[in-house]
Amino acid sequence: MTLKKTLTIAGSDTSGGAGIQADLKTFQELGTYGMTALTVVVTMDPDNNWSHNVYSLPIDVVNSQIKTALSTGIDAVKTGMLSTEEVIQAAGEAIKAWGSPHVVIDPVMVCKGEDEVLNPGTVDAMIEYLLPRAEVVTPNLFEAGQLAGMKTPGTVEQMKAVAEKIHSLGARNVVIKGGKQLQHDKAADLFYDGKTHLLLESEKTDTHYNHGAGCTFAAAITANLANGKDIKEAVIEAKAFVAAAIANGWKLNEYVGPVMHGAKSRFGGPEITTTEV
Ligand SMILES: Nc1ncnc2c1ncn2[C@@H]1O[C@H](COP(=O)(O)OP(=O)(O)O)[C@@H](O)[C@H]1O
Ligand SMILES: Cc1ncc(COP(=O)(O)O)c(C=O)c1O
């Protein structure tokens, strides 16, 4: 049996819910063979309210992993937490040389909650090296505003304007995640392919146990693209996958509640409605 090969270039979340851990669990659930290029290791301090430590790997080590993985003939690539401009440039150049279209950019800038984990200046590098290579980019509201150089969108109309700006920077498709943040009765994301704005909606789960949702969503899109789905289908199915994962999120300890990456195959996923807006 030949499996489609998916690569994540991202950080390690030691707590297991986000980062490459989320990506590998998702790749596995969706029947692809996952490979990794680690950029940073994130640990949490149990003696200091679970505050985050971020340890960056040397650029040579990052490059060597990317080269190893791409040499195997990868079908789709995802990027997640890329700690420095140097790593963003390296990832972008390797993806360009690789030359295949299935590139999912999750422009991770902050972890959910408080901790700033990315250095300032990385936004410009993402715009230069990653957006022009993206089949799809998946910012949350804050990240979308940063990429567009506009204020953080707070309404669907504002999301549309921001999506158009990000598309003009070279990303072929844009999904802005309204998620829990957007003042809206559903969990709503805006999908823009350069022609049509589609609002994707599912029931909003009332939970704090959503750690890793963004990574899981982007990883599911990546696996779906590797498996041959078109971009719209890949995004809609990924939304159902992550919605099920959030609905079954659970408490790891008093600080963090990860999503359950394998929920959809066990319990099914919700219906996603799509409306042109
Ligand atoms: N409470 C929720 N109920 C259902 N879906 C949600 C909820 N929160 C987020 N989502 C969905 O999960 C996906 C990831 O979004 P989000 O968690 O906001 O990303 P990020 O982790 O990057 O901030 C999106 O499709 C979003 O709409
Ligand atoms: C390595 C890593 N990548 C990405 C994220 C972003 O996680 P989320 O999917 O919850 O936005 C985190 C947050 O802790 C992380 O530690």
TrEMBL record:
Q: Which UniProt keywords apply?
A: ATP-binding, Kinase, Magnesium, Metal-binding, Nucleotide-binding, Transferase
* Broad EC category: transferase
User: Any keyword ATP-binding?
Assistant: yes
Is Ribonucleoprotein one of the keywords UniProt gives this record? no
Q: Which GO terms describe its molecular function?
A: hydroxymethylpyrimidine kinase activity; phosphomethylpyrimidine kinase activity
Query: Which InterPro entries does this chain map to?
Result: HMP/HMP-P_kinase_dom (IPR004399), PM/HMP-P_kinase-1 (IPR013749), Ribokinase-like (IPR029056)
- Reaction(s) catalysed by this chain's protein: pyridoxal + ATP = pyridoxal 5'-phosphate + ADP + H(+)
Question: Which ranges carry the Pyridoxamine kinase/Phosphomethylpyrimidine kinase domain?
Answer: 13-259
What EC number(s) has UniProt assigned to this enzyme?
2.7.1.35
Question: What Pfam families does the entry give?
Answer: Phos_pyr_kin
UniProt family annotation: Belongs to the ThiD family.
What is the protein name given in its UniProt record? pyridoxal kinase
| Species assigned in the record | Sporosarcina aquimarina
